[in-house]
Amino acid sequence: MMKVLIVEDNPAMRRLLQWQSPFDFRKGQSFYGLVQAIFEGRLEFGLAGRAGNTALMAACPSSFTVNDPGDTSDAGAGDQVCADSNGNCTLRAAIQEANAITACSPLTINFSVTGTINLATVLPSLNHPNLTISGPGASSLTVQRSTAAGTGLFRVFKINSGMTVAVSGMTITNGMEGSIVGNGAGINNAGTLSLSDCVISGNNTGGGSSGGGIYTQGPLTVTRCAINGNDAGLGAGIRVSSTTLVMSDSTISGNGAIYPGGGLYMDAATVMVTNCAFSGNKANGNFGSVTNTGVGGETSLLTLVNCTITGATGNSGVGISTRDSSNNATSIVTRLKNTLVAGNGGNNFATSGTNATLTSQGANLDSDGSSGFTGGVNGDLVGAAANKIDALLSSLGSYGGATQTHALLPGSPAINAGASSGAPANDQRGSSRVGAVDIGSFESQGFSLTIAGGNNQNTAFNTAFTNPLSVAVTANAAAEPVNGGQVTFTPPTQPGSFPIIVTATDSNGCTGTGATYRLSVYTTSMLAPAPTREILYY
Question: By C-alpha distance, which of 355, 354, 377 is closest to 366?
Answer without folding.
Answer: 377
